[in-house]
Amino acid sequence: MVERVTQPEGAEVVIEVWSDLGCPWCYVGHHRLQVAIAQRPDADRFDIRMRSFELNPTAPQELETIEKAFIRAHGGTAAHFLQAERQIQAIARGEGLAFSLDRPSANTFGLHRVVQYAGDQGRGFALFSDVQDGFFAGTLNPYDPDALAGVAESVGLDGQRVREILASNEYAERVRADRSEGLALGATGVPFVVLDRRVAAPGAQKVPVYGQLLEQVAGPVPGCPTLGSDERHRHLSLPAR
Protein backbone atom coordinates (compact mmCIF):
# COMPACT_ATOMS: atom_id res chain seq x y z
CA MET A 1 0.00 0.00 0.00
CA VAL A 2 1.12 3.56 -0.70
CA GLU A 3 0.71 6.07 2.09
CA ARG A 4 -2.20 8.41 1.52
CA VAL A 5 -1.07 12.04 1.32
CA THR A 6 -3.79 14.67 1.15
CA GLN A 7 -3.91 18.40 0.71
CA PRO A 8 -4.91 20.49 3.74
CA GLU A 9 -8.67 20.88 4.07
CA GLY A 10 -9.93 23.52 1.65
CA ALA A 11 -6.69 23.79 -0.31
CA GLU A 12 -6.88 23.89 -4.10
CA VAL A 13 -6.28 20.58 -5.87
CA VAL A 14 -5.01 20.75 -9.45
CA ILE A 15 -6.17 18.00 -11.79
CA GLU A 16 -4.31 17.77 -15.10
CA VAL A 17 -6.02 15.98 -17.97
CA TRP A 18 -4.07 14.86 -21.03
CA SER A 19 -6.57 14.43 -23.84
CA ASP A 20 -7.31 14.69 -27.55
CA LEU A 21 -10.46 15.93 -29.25
CA GLY A 22 -11.47 12.87 -31.23
CA CYS A 23 -10.91 10.34 -28.45
CA PRO A 24 -14.36 9.02 -27.43
CA TRP A 25 -13.06 7.59 -24.17
CA CYS A 26 -11.74 11.07 -23.29
CA TYR A 27 -15.25 12.43 -23.87
CA VAL A 28 -16.76 9.84 -21.54
CA GLY A 29 -13.94 10.09 -19.00
CA HIS A 30 -14.14 13.89 -18.73
CA HIS A 31 -17.82 13.71 -17.89
CA ARG A 32 -17.27 10.96 -15.33
CA LEU A 33 -14.56 13.03 -13.67
CA GLN A 34 -16.87 16.05 -13.54
CA VAL A 35 -19.65 13.95 -11.99
CA ALA A 36 -17.27 12.67 -9.32
CA ILE A 37 -16.19 16.22 -8.50
CA ALA A 38 -19.76 17.51 -8.44
CA GLN A 39 -20.69 14.87 -5.88
CA ARG A 40 -18.39 16.51 -3.35
CA PRO A 41 -19.52 19.56 -1.32
CA ASP A 42 -16.02 21.00 -1.81
CA ALA A 43 -16.20 20.76 -5.60
CA ASP A 44 -14.88 24.29 -6.03
CA ARG A 45 -11.50 23.16 -4.67
CA PHE A 46 -10.68 21.29 -7.86
CA ASP A 47 -9.03 23.08 -10.77
CA ILE A 48 -9.08 20.99 -13.96
CA ARG A 49 -6.35 21.96 -16.42
CA MET A 50 -6.18 20.62 -19.95
CA ARG A 51 -2.91 19.24 -21.25
CA SER A 52 -2.26 18.47 -24.91
CA PHE A 53 -1.73 14.95 -26.21
CA GLU A 54 -2.04 14.42 -29.96
CA LEU A 55 -2.95 10.81 -30.57
CA ASN A 56 -2.05 11.06 -34.24
CA PRO A 57 0.35 13.93 -35.01
CA THR A 58 0.57 12.79 -38.64
CA ALA A 59 -3.18 13.04 -39.26
CA PRO A 60 -3.99 15.05 -42.40
CA GLN A 61 -5.04 18.69 -42.22
CA GLU A 62 -7.89 18.07 -44.63
CA LEU A 63 -11.24 16.86 -43.34
CA GLU A 64 -12.06 13.20 -43.77
CA THR A 65 -14.62 10.80 -42.37
CA ILE A 66 -13.93 9.19 -39.01
CA GLU A 67 -14.34 5.84 -40.73
CA LYS A 68 -11.41 6.58 -43.04
CA ALA A 69 -9.31 7.90 -40.15
CA PHE A 70 -10.10 4.84 -38.03
CA ILE A 71 -9.15 2.35 -40.74
CA ARG A 72 -5.92 4.21 -41.51
CA ALA A 73 -4.93 4.24 -37.84
CA HIS A 74 -6.18 0.82 -36.73
CA GLY A 75 -6.66 -1.24 -39.87
CA GLY A 76 -9.67 -3.45 -40.33
CA THR A 77 -12.79 -2.73 -42.32
CA ALA A 78 -15.78 -0.44 -42.24
CA ALA A 79 -17.61 -3.13 -40.30
CA HIS A 80 -14.91 -3.12 -37.61
CA PHE A 81 -15.14 0.66 -37.38
CA LEU A 82 -18.91 0.61 -37.05
CA GLN A 83 -18.81 -2.07 -34.37
CA ALA A 84 -16.31 -0.06 -32.30
CA GLU A 85 -18.25 3.16 -32.73
CA ARG A 86 -21.57 1.59 -31.75
CA GLN A 87 -20.05 0.09 -28.63
CA ILE A 88 -18.76 3.40 -27.32
CA GLN A 89 -21.92 5.15 -28.52
CA ALA A 90 -24.00 2.83 -26.34
CA ILE A 91 -21.78 3.53 -23.34
CA ALA A 92 -21.93 7.30 -23.88
CA ARG A 93 -25.69 7.36 -24.37
CA GLY A 94 -26.12 5.16 -21.32
CA GLU A 95 -24.50 7.96 -19.33
CA GLY A 96 -26.70 10.64 -20.85
CA LEU A 97 -24.19 11.89 -23.43
CA ALA A 98 -24.97 12.68 -27.05
CA PHE A 99 -22.90 10.65 -29.51
CA SER A 100 -23.22 11.11 -33.26
CA LEU A 101 -21.54 8.75 -35.71
CA ASP A 102 -21.43 11.55 -38.27
CA ARG A 103 -18.32 13.44 -37.19
CA PRO A 104 -15.44 14.83 -39.24
CA SER A 105 -11.80 14.02 -38.56
CA ALA A 106 -8.59 15.98 -39.17
CA ASN A 107 -5.35 17.00 -37.48
CA THR A 108 -5.98 18.42 -33.99
CA PHE A 109 -2.74 20.38 -33.58
CA GLY A 110 -4.42 23.73 -34.22
CA LEU A 111 -7.10 23.07 -31.63
CA HIS A 112 -4.47 22.09 -29.07
CA ARG A 113 -2.69 25.38 -29.67
CA VAL A 114 -5.92 27.28 -29.07
CA VAL A 115 -6.54 25.30 -25.87
CA GLN A 116 -3.09 26.34 -24.68
CA TYR A 117 -4.09 29.97 -25.14
CA ALA A 118 -7.39 29.31 -23.36
CA GLY A 119 -5.50 27.70 -20.49
CA ASP A 120 -3.46 30.86 -20.04
CA GLN A 121 -6.76 32.69 -19.56
CA GLY A 122 -8.06 30.10 -17.09
CA ARG A 123 -10.57 28.78 -19.65
CA GLY A 124 -8.80 25.75 -21.08
CA PHE A 125 -11.10 23.08 -19.67
CA ALA A 126 -14.22 25.12 -20.38
CA LEU A 127 -13.23 25.61 -24.02
CA PHE A 128 -12.15 22.03 -24.60
CA SER A 129 -15.27 20.62 -22.92
CA ASP A 130 -17.65 22.74 -24.98
CA VAL A 131 -15.82 21.96 -28.21
CA GLN A 132 -15.74 18.24 -27.50
CA ASP A 133 -19.40 18.16 -26.44
CA GLY A 134 -20.45 19.85 -29.68
CA PHE A 135 -18.16 17.64 -31.72
CA PHE A 136 -19.54 14.37 -30.36
CA ALA A 137 -23.10 15.66 -30.50
CA GLY A 138 -22.55 16.26 -34.22
CA THR A 139 -23.44 19.96 -33.93
CA LEU A 140 -19.96 21.49 -34.26
CA ASN A 141 -17.12 21.30 -36.76
CA PRO A 142 -14.16 22.30 -34.55
CA TYR A 143 -11.86 22.37 -37.58
CA ASP A 144 -13.70 25.46 -38.86
CA PRO A 145 -11.85 28.54 -37.51
CA ASP A 146 -15.03 30.59 -37.30
CA ALA A 147 -16.89 27.84 -35.44
CA LEU A 148 -14.00 27.42 -33.01
CA ALA A 149 -13.77 31.17 -32.50
CA GLY A 150 -17.49 31.22 -31.75
CA VAL A 151 -17.13 28.63 -28.99
CA ALA A 152 -14.16 30.55 -27.61
CA GLU A 153 -16.25 33.71 -27.41
CA SER A 154 -19.02 31.82 -25.63
CA VAL A 155 -16.61 30.97 -22.78
CA GLY A 156 -15.25 34.49 -22.51
CA LEU A 157 -12.28 34.38 -24.88
CA ASP A 158 -11.30 36.62 -27.79
CA GLY A 159 -12.51 35.06 -31.04
CA GLN A 160 -10.21 37.18 -33.16
CA ARG A 161 -7.26 36.01 -31.07
CA VAL A 162 -8.26 32.42 -31.79
CA ARG A 163 -8.24 33.10 -35.51
CA GLU A 164 -4.79 34.69 -35.22
CA ILE A 165 -3.42 31.66 -33.38
CA LEU A 166 -4.84 29.26 -35.96
CA ALA A 167 -3.24 31.28 -38.75
CA SER A 168 0.18 31.18 -37.04
CA ASN A 169 2.33 28.63 -35.27
CA GLU A 170 1.88 30.04 -31.77
CA TYR A 171 1.93 27.61 -28.83
CA ALA A 172 3.32 24.82 -31.04
CA GLU A 173 6.23 24.03 -28.74
CA ARG A 174 3.98 23.94 -25.70
CA VAL A 175 1.70 21.41 -27.36
CA ARG A 176 4.67 19.17 -28.14
CA ALA A 177 6.10 19.66 -24.65
CA ASP A 178 2.80 18.62 -23.07
CA ARG A 179 2.78 15.39 -25.01
CA SER A 180 6.38 14.66 -24.07
CA GLU A 181 5.66 15.31 -20.41
CA GLY A 182 2.63 13.04 -20.50
CA LEU A 183 4.72 10.24 -21.96
CA ALA A 184 7.37 10.81 -19.29
CA LEU A 185 4.71 10.46 -16.59
CA GLY A 186 3.59 7.13 -18.02
CA ALA A 187 0.83 8.01 -20.46
CA THR A 188 0.49 5.48 -23.27
CA GLY A 189 -2.75 7.00 -24.50
CA VAL A 190 -5.57 9.24 -23.34
CA PRO A 191 -7.37 10.17 -21.23
CA PHE A 192 -4.56 10.38 -18.70
CA VAL A 193 -5.40 12.15 -15.46
CA VAL A 194 -2.89 13.36 -12.87
CA LEU A 195 -4.18 14.62 -9.53
CA ASP A 196 -2.06 16.93 -7.39
CA ARG A 197 1.06 15.53 -9.07
CA ARG A 198 0.69 12.50 -6.79
CA VAL A 199 -1.63 10.03 -8.48
CA ALA A 200 -2.04 9.20 -12.17
CA ALA A 201 -4.98 7.34 -13.66
CA PRO A 202 -4.94 6.11 -17.26
CA GLY A 203 -8.12 5.52 -19.20
CA ALA A 204 -11.73 6.52 -18.62
CA GLN A 205 -12.32 5.41 -15.04
CA LYS A 206 -15.79 4.90 -13.57
CA VAL A 207 -17.25 7.65 -11.40
CA PRO A 208 -16.64 5.79 -8.10
CA VAL A 209 -12.99 5.28 -9.02
CA TYR A 210 -12.53 8.96 -9.75
CA GLY A 211 -14.19 9.51 -6.38
CA GLN A 212 -11.50 7.37 -4.76
CA LEU A 213 -8.79 9.40 -6.44
CA LEU A 214 -10.30 12.67 -5.29
CA GLU A 215 -10.50 11.35 -1.75
CA GLN A 216 -6.92 10.19 -1.94
CA VAL A 217 -5.57 13.64 -2.74
CA ALA A 218 -8.18 15.87 -1.08
CA GLY A 219 -9.42 13.80 1.83
CA PRO A 220 -12.82 12.20 2.41
CA VAL A 221 -16.09 14.04 2.09
CA PRO A 222 -17.15 15.13 5.59
CA GLY A 223 -19.68 12.73 7.04
CA CYS A 224 -19.13 10.07 4.39
CA PRO A 225 -17.34 6.74 4.80
CA THR A 226 -13.83 6.45 3.42
CA LEU A 227 -13.71 4.80 0.00
CA GLY A 228 -11.48 1.84 -0.74
CA SER A 229 -8.31 2.35 -2.72
CA ASP A 230 -7.76 1.15 -6.26
CA GLU A 231 -4.25 -0.11 -6.91
CA ARG A 232 -4.54 0.27 -10.69
CA HIS A 233 -3.38 3.86 -10.38
CA ARG A 234 0.20 5.00 -10.49
CA HIS A 235 1.49 6.97 -7.52
CA LEU A 236 3.76 9.83 -8.49
CA SER A 237 6.32 11.77 -6.52
CA LEU A 238 6.82 14.96 -8.47
CA PRO A 239 7.16 18.65 -7.74
CA ALA A 240 4.16 20.84 -8.51
CA ARG A 241 4.09 22.23 -12.04
Q: How would you characterize this protein structure?
A:
The chain has a single domain (13-235), classed as Glutaredoxin (3-Layer(aba) Sandwich), CATH 3.40.30. The chain contains nine helices and seven strands, in the order E-H-E-E-H-H-E-H-H-H-H-H-E-E-H-E. With 241 residues, the chain is α+β, with helices and mostly antiparallel strands. The chain is 46% helix and 12% strand. The strands form two sheets. A five-stranded mixed β-sheet has the order 2-1-5-6-7. Strands 3-4 form a two-stranded antiparallel ribbon. It comes from Streptomyces johnsoniae.
What brief labels describe this structure?
241 residues; Thioredoxin-like_sf; Glutaredoxin; 12% strand; alpha+beta; 9 helices; globular; two-stranded antiparallel sheet; five-stranded mixed β-sheet
